[in-house]
Design a protein that fits this description.
By secondary structure, this protein is an alpha/beta fold. The protein contains 16 helices and 19 strands. About 35% of the residues lie in helices and about 10% in strands. Helix 7 packs across helix 8. It starts with a strand and ends with a strand.
């Protein structure tokens, strides 16, 4: 029979009989079920007597110190020297014996510092109870939202069997509604073939947005941060709230989140044509265009990414689009035009963003029968982009209306897209922002729905998945020519900007074979003219905050170190100061930093002028390179003159601002220069050279680069910013 010792439970304070074999192990009390560790009773040395830590019983294993004169405590003799029961290869075992105590899988190899002498369960229980109450409150509050999401998603879900394969109508009827034994079609509620809730809605949408225009003012895309409004949010809420099937909605844009594609004229026209022609009679379609529009000789045109607003042949006629929509067989047709977009703090960097003319509004109003058209603004107004609504005030309000959906109404497959409700909500949203920020913008809707008698038919096959069409084959030789030209004369943007103004190869029109041959690169020794062109290009990159191209990076970095250029000085704005005197002192320092940029640029320009007589001896390629870089240097120096003038204005007197709306100022682009006469003269010379280059190199990469620079405005003005 096993020897037992007495131990007091720290929980219920009752005395337990514990087998000596269980010493140094964890057990549970049979009365209160508390876990505890039984430790050996080691007598303390008497007063005045030093304990000898090395003194052991002859029979001791070294694990339990022994003292021959150990006293009896509470009637219990000292513990005998008993070694712990060793663990086998299966780990510690749980054992219950006649004493009613349980070993709880104690592993003696663990250090004693990880063993708890006493467990207090009060705090964990209270915490768990509190969390449980919070969970119940949250569930009650979230239940309406959860129910709404379940109802919203029910129509777009596909029922599947245990193997992940779609179920047929009978399986759906039986499993979802408990109607076992009913034949096909008896329960129409969830039978797609009978027009039930699982059938996809006959709705389609195409969103076309153009942002980094080649020759026109850029338009903003919205902030790509979770929770913020942006162009992709239009597609998101058209799917989530308006029930447009995922494979029946597409975003065509140079800034698209998925599959960014330059919306060139051929791509936009081809994709729209295929979208409208493939729509069925029962379909409800929405086409959204975000970008520039211009009125020319009584006609309205939409601008693709490479569109020249002064050349109607490069644009998309609204009359053509109206004709395509008129011949489309769809049951409901909606066109949303967010044109005349303008940001006061960006200004007019290139053409575009002028107010809607009365003639443009008149042309837009003449809609074909059955077409509903929404415009972002009215005559003499702009579609405003603000610092708070980067997506644009109209689209900000439109996305908000889409996100909230149609309250109190369960949409059915045969219903129209509730465009009247969406428009009304959008107008209210825009009105609030316009009043708050003190500008005028009133969206308009023209036309009316015309019932063509088409009814929802779930048996009709869905239209094909939307796709981008009209892409032209890549001309490898042409691309190679453009790349080599950019390696020779690629320059940074004239002015600092938060918007990406970099030129992309895929935006450029195809290069003809005869142009490729005419401007082919010719190997040979580097001439003085070519060396000075490269030197001027390096100087332009030295004052830019952008990373330099790989081929000249080392030279640019070295010159930046020597010149000690403050690359942050050419900022696009300032915050309103708390201390005006200190602020103006800082402005004076910025003026001096800008002044140091003039000398190397002017030296590079002087060197190029000395090489002008050598130009005729160069190939057509290097003649074009020379003209472009010289004009580009002139425009850069002209811009620095203008920037210096703006700093001088601010140092003299702070620009006006509405303190309730604006926390500072930004330098907005404008066509008219206000600065030094020397800068104005250089700007004219640059424009003249660029215009000649456009004419003399038609169809070449130099034409595109020169036209883009020619349209870039160099004037500046202070505008209040949020």
């Amino acid at each position: 029979m096993s020897t037992a010792i007495n131990a007091t439970c720290p929980g219920c304070k009752k005395v337990l009989k514990v087998p000596t074999q269980w010493v140094n192990q964890v057990i549970r009390c049979k009365f209160c079920n508390m876990a505890m560790q039984i430790k050996p009773n080691i007598p303390q040395p008497q007063s005045g007597v030093k304990a000898n830590p090395t003194q052991q019983s002859p029979q001791s294993s070294g694990n339990v110190p022994q003292t021959p004169s150990a006293a009896v405590r509470n009637g219990v003799p000292p513990l005998p020297d008993v070694s712990p029961i060793p663990s086998n290869h299966r780990g510690a075992q749980s054992v219950t014996n006649q004493f009613g105590l349980t070993d709880v899988n104690y592993n003696p190899s663990y250090s004693s510092k990880y063993r708890k002498k006493k467990v207090n369960w009060v705090i964990p229980v209270l915490v768990m109870a509190f969390m449980g109450i919070l969970g119940i409150v949250f569930l009650v509050m979230a239940m309406p939202y959860i129910k709404d999401k379940i109802n919203n998603n029910a129509d777009s879900m596909t029922a599947v069997d245990g193997k992940g394969k779609p179920k047929d109508a009978d399986q759906i009827d039986q499993n979802k509604d408990g109607n076992k034994g009913k034949g096909p079609g008896e329960n129409k509620k969830n039978n797609p073939a009978a027009g039930g809730s699982n059938a996809p809605f006959p709705r389609r949408a195409l969103v076309v947005s153009v942002h980094n225009y080649l020759y026109a003012n850029p338009t903003q895309y919205g902030l790509m941060v979770q929770g913020m409004k942006n162009i992709p949010a239009i597609s998101k809420y058209l799917t989530n709230q308006m029930r447009v099937p995922v494979n029946q909605i597409m975003h065509l844009s140079d800034a698209a989140k998925d599959n960014p594609t330059p919306p060139t004229k051929s791509v936009v026209e081809s994709t729209i044509t295929d979208f409208l022609k493939s729509s069925r009679k029962q379909d409800h379609v929405m086409l959204v265009f975000v970008g520039h529009a211009v009125e020319n000789d009584g006609q309205v045109y939409l601008a693709p990414i490479e569109g020249d607003l002064t050349d109607p042949t490069s644009l998309i006629p609204l009359a053509w689009l109206y004709k395509e929509l008129d011949t489309c067989a769809a049951h409901q047709k909606i066109l949303v035009l967010d044109v005349c977009r303008f940001s006061p703090t960006i200004g007019i960097e290139r053409p575009g963003g002028q107010p809607m003319s009365a003639k443009m509004e008149e042309v837009i109003k003449a809609v074909p029968a059955g077409l509903q058209v929404i415009t972002a603004c009215s005559a003499e107004q702009r579609s405003m982009e603000t610092d708070g609504e980067l997506l644009g005030v109209f689209l900000d309000g439109f996305v908000d209306a889409l996100q909230k959906g149609v309250q109190g109404h369960i949409q059915k497959q045969g219903d129209n897209i509730p465009i009247d409700n969406l428009f009304e909500a959008t107008v209210k949203n825009v009105e609030v922002l316009a009043v708050e920020q003190k500008f005028k913008q009133t969206p308009k809707m023209y036309g009316a729905f015309k019932d063509n008698g088409a009814e929802f038919d779930p048996a009709e096959p869905m239209p094909p998945k939307l796709a981008i069409t009209g892409l032209k084959p890549v001309n490898k030789e042409g691309i190679a020519l453009v790349k080599s030209v950019l390696e020779e004369i690629g320059t940074p943007p004239v002015k600092a900007s938060e918007i990406d103004n970099s030129i992309r190869l895929e935006y450029l029109p195809p290069i003809a074979d005869h142009i490729i041959k005419e401007y082919a690169k010719v190997d040979g020794p580097e001439t003085d003219l070519q060396k000075n062109v490269k030197k001027a290009r390096i100087e332009l990159w030295v004052i830019s905050s952008l990373p330099a191209p790989a081929d000249i990076k080392n030279e640019v970095d070295e010159k930046r170190k020597i010149a000690k250029v403050n690359l942050d000085v050419l900022k696009d704005g300032y915050r309103a100061p708390a201390n005006e005197i200190a602020f103006k002192t800082g402005i004076e320092k910025d003026e001096k930093d800008v002044a140091r940029m003039f000398v190397p640029l002017q030296d590079a320009l002087d060197d190029l002028k000395k090489n002008e007589e050598m130009k005729d001896a160069e190939t057509k390629r290097w003649q074009a390179n020379y003209d472009f870089i010289r004009a580009r240097l002139e425009s850069q120096i002209a811009y620095l003159y203008e920037y210096q003038s703006m700093l001088g204005q601010m140092r003299k007197e702070l620009p006006e601002r509405d303190a309730k709306l604006h926390g500072g100022w930004k330098l907005a682009a404008t066509a008219k220069l206000q600065g030094d006469s020397a800068g104005k003269k250089l700007a004219k010379e640059s424009t003249k050279t660029m215009e000649a280059l456009v004419k003399n190199t038609a169809g070449s990469p130099w034409e595109v680069l020169a036209k883009r620079e020619k349209f870039t405005t160099l004037g500046l003005e202070w505008q209040g910013t949020k």
